[in-house]
Specification:
The structure holds two protein chains of two kinds. Chain A is an alpha+beta fold. Chain A has 13 helices and twelve strands. Chain A folds into two domains: 2-51 and 272-404, no CATH class; 80-259, no CATH class. Chain A is 56% helix and 18% strand. In chain B, the strands form two sheets. Chain B has a six-stranded mixed sheet with strand order 6-7-8-3-9-10, with helices on both faces. Classes of the chains: A alpha+beta, B alpha/beta. The complex binds adenosine-5'-diphosphate (ADP) and magnesium ion.
Chain lengths: 406, 237
């Protein structure tokens, strides 16, 4: 019985090809939108998650200058007030595990006939621990290199690719601002940062080398920022307080004066970025769901027209012995079939669309079987829900009224 | 009276219209025995179709008693009425009322779908019926590909397929020419005489009514008089 009804529903759908297709279009677009949006949303969330993981955990960035720029003071990091010894003092705090000072700037780098402009970070070997960075080949420079301000460099993946191509960079000499540096190691791939920068487009040299030989700061011994890692996540607040107190003391700042440095809690920033990504993906899903709802209303609309148009057919069926539930089932199946076919096409379209977005708009997309099954399940539910009212209307028809219908 | 298929007493039917309640059937008493072939005649608007629809369980009376095969139909709910229409009654309409999208064979088999009969048996029985009404070659055609007379044969096959006790035909030849009408009436005669199926037929043509055993004349919602047909009168002599 159910088979012959399915068959009939299929025939009814085929008999009204154009109309069925237009009705399906609502479902196709709705389901497609849900799939695309949830794939993009999940992709964005995953990208944020990876950036957060690549950042290193429980991190603070201490910047020179205050965040609130009052009077003649310039923006943060403008006047270098932090020194390497500030960093060493911070490292001695009980709540702080590791510290890496960073003096950075842009420079032109040359190897053979290739040249590449990139960020040069002067730091200590600690930066690898703090940033949770590993060395892919070669080795790190050492504290002795920092003490001796030697010309050695760790290069990021992007730099390695642009300067060396397939060649192994370890042990090779590159020129930074005309001076020769030896590449001692290549950093492992890290990907994008939260603000979308390529973290692999960088070179790390000893901080002393950067200060004395590369950027030649007029403020000897200062650094642009200090990265500090707290011993654990629940000591973040304590670490921030201790650092503030210590740095105010070291910089001889009186009680009524503002800090000449600012501390940024990267863990908190990461958490809010993750929240934002989550809200965004929920919103994308919600917007897409509305089109699914509109598709469902389309089905109801068409089924109501169909029921009216086929009043006589319903009358005939009832006259020869169809029960209410037979008619109900018949129209429900038709609605269900339209929504299921529509959602299957929608799934294909959504997956295709998301893959195109990935390829041509370089968005990261992630399909979860959960999102696909949910879209499918919701579509089927919508088919039943919006198909029910018209089907019931058909089933409740009085045979004699229905037969009289012209 | 044990073998009476239809037993109605003081049956009435009113229609509620904007202008008020319109009485259409005004107290009809009638008994139809198993194997009878009855023709109902009357002027247009006299209530023939209204009566047939009630007999066919497509409509319910306003008052009086209607017993079908011994069951008071007042005691039946919508589902049981549907089952009665499916298994006890074969209804034949003036306008054929076939489903245009379905093949002839599927049209004939449709009542069996609602009777819950498996597909193979449905098709087998539909093929037998198709042969019986002389349309063996047309099973895969659509209703609009065959003539009116052929469509009415299909409708008869559909009415017969679930082996009903009673065939109700409301002006079955109303849309057909004389020759085709005669062929259809011969089919009814055969069914009645060879298989003993009870038939009630509405017509306003005397020629057609003569195929029956007796004629009931309805006038203004009441039975005017009944008479045997000519051939029955002769057979009595
Ligand atoms: N649904 C209805 N509502 C109101 N009046 C109706 C309805 N159906 C039939 N009638 C009226 O009932 C009377 C009998 O109709 P019907 O039984 O179709 O007559 P017949 O078949 O004998 O020509 C007619 O006057 C018709 O107008
Ligand atoms: Mg009539």
């Amino acid at each position: 019985m159910i088979w012959s009804m399915l068959n009939e529903a299929l025939e009814a759908m085929i008999a009204n090809r154009m109309r069925s297709f237009l009705t399906m279009l609502g479902m196709i677009i709705g389901v497609g939108a849900v799939i695309i949006m949830s794939a993009i949303g999940a992709g964005a969330q995953e990208a944020v998650k990876q950036s957060i993981a690549s950042m290193g955990s429980n991190l603070f960035i201490v910047l020179s200058g205050s965040t609130t720029s009052g009077g003649a003071r310039m923006g943060s990091g403008a006047t270098p007030t932090l020194t390497i010894s500030d960093g060493e003092a911070v490292a001695d705090l009980p709540s702080i595990a590791e510290v890496a000072p960073i003096a950075s700037g842009m420079a032109q780098v040359i190897y053979g006939s290739n040249n590449w402009s990139t960020t040069i970070m002067g730091s200590t070997p600690n930066i690898l621990t703090v940033r949770n960075w590993t060395i892919e080949s070669g080795y790190s420079f050492t504290d002795a290199d920092v003490r001796g301000a030697t010309r050695v460099a760790l290069i990021g993946k992007t730099v390695a690719e642009n300067l060396f191509g397939d060649e192994d960079p370890v042990g090779k000499m590159i020129r930074i601002k005309q001076s020769p540096y030896q590449v001692v190691g290549v950093l492992a791939l890290k990907g994008q940062s939260l603000d979308g920068r390529d973290q692999d487009d960088t070179i790390i040299v000893p901080v002393t080398t950067a200060q004395h030989k590369l950027f030649g700061s007029q403020f000897q011994g200062t650094v642009r920022l200090i990265m500090a890692q707290a011993v654990s996540a629940d000591q973040m607040d304590e670490a921030e307080n201790q650092m503030t107190e210590l740095l105010r003391q070291r910089h001889h700042i009186r009680n009524n004066k503002e800090n000449d440095f600012s501390i940024r809690n990267l863990a908190a920033m990461a958490a809010s970025a993750a929240d934002t990504a989550k809200v965004m993906s929920l919103m994308l899903g919600a917007i897409a769901s509305i089109s699914l709802l509109v598709g469902g209303i389309g089905i109801m609309n068409i089924m109501l027209v169909s029921v009216t148009e086929r009043t006589r057919e319903i009358g005939i069926r009832v006259a020869i012995g169809a029960h209410e539930r037979d008619i109900l089932l018949q129209f429900l199946l038709e609605a269900l079939m339209i929504s299921i076919f529509g959602s299957m096409i929608g799934i294909l379209l959504g997956v295709g669309g998301a893959l195109i977005a990935e390829k041509f708009l370089s968005m990261s997309v992630i399909f979860t079987s959960q999102s696909i099954f949910t879209a499918f399940g919701v579509a089927a539910t919508i088919g039943i829900f919006f198909g029910f009212y018209p089907a019931r209307k058909a089933a409740k028809m009085e045979p004699i009224e229905a037969l009289r219908f012209q | 009276m044990t073998d009476s298929v239809i037993n109605i007493k003081n049956l009435t039917k009113n229609y509620e219209t904007a202008a008020g309640v319109v009485p259409v059937l005004k107290g009809i008493d009638m008994t139809v025995s198993s194997g009878e072939f009855l023709a109902i005649m009357g002027a247009s608007g006299s209530g023939k179709s209204t009566l047939m629809n009630i007999l066919g369980c497509l409509d319910i009376p306003s008052g009086g008693i209607y017993e079908l095969n011994g069951t008071d139909i007042k005691s039946l709910d919508k589902n049981s009425l549907a089952s009665f229409r499916n298994s006890m009654i074969g209804f034949i309409f003036q306008g054929f009322n076939l489903l245009p999208r379905m093949s002839i064979i599927d049209n004939i088999a449709l009542p069996l779908v609602y009777a819950g009969i498996p597909k193979e048996e449905r098709i087998e029985r539909a093929c037998i019926m198709l042969e019986k009404v002389g349309l063996g070659l047309y099973g895969s055609y659509r209703p609009n590909q065959i003539s009116g007379g052929q469509q009415q044969r299909v409708a008869i096959a559909r009415a017969l397929i679930n082996r009903p006790k009673l065939i109700l035909a409301d002006e079955p030849t109303g849309n057909l020419d004389t020759k085709t009408s005669q062929e259809i009436m011969n089919l009814f005669s055969d069914l009645n005489m060879q298989e003993g199926i009870t038939i009630i037929l509405v017509t306003h043509e005397n020629d057609i009514a003569q195929y029956a055993q007796s004629i009931v004349h309805i006038h203004d919602g009441k039975i005017d008089f009944s008479e045997p047909t000519n051939r029955m009168k002769e057979s009595v002599k």
